[in-house]
Amino acid sequence: MFEAMPAPRAIATPCIQVCVVDGESGLCLGCHRTLAEVAQWTRFTDAERATLMAELPGRRSRISPEKLGLFGAG
To answer: What is the Cα–Cα distance from 72 to 70, expressed in whole angstroms?
Structure first.
């Protein structure tokens, strides 16, 4: 008899599926992460992800409001 594998645990993410990187700030217009952070997200520990998620609202001011409004991320 086979033992059932546990379902993978969901990883918290700030992604809102607006994946457009602002050339000026280097941040995604949707989640405000850098490309490197997006690429490494699943490799970060829960603590590292929590720290980054706490920083994201403060990064919003680095993106011009006009750009945020283009994709409904404003």
So the answer is: 6
Backbone angles phi, psi at 33, to 5 degrees: -95, 160
Question: Is the separation of the CB atoms in 25 and 32 below 8 Å?
Answer: no
H-type helices in 1-74, by residue range?
A: 35-40, 46-59, 65-70
The fraction of the chain above a pLDDT of 90, given in percent, is 68
| Rounded CA separation 73/5 (Å) | 38
Pull the structure tokens for residue 74: 């404003």
Residue ranges covered by each domain of the chain: 16-74
Q: pTM (2 decimals)?
A: 0.81
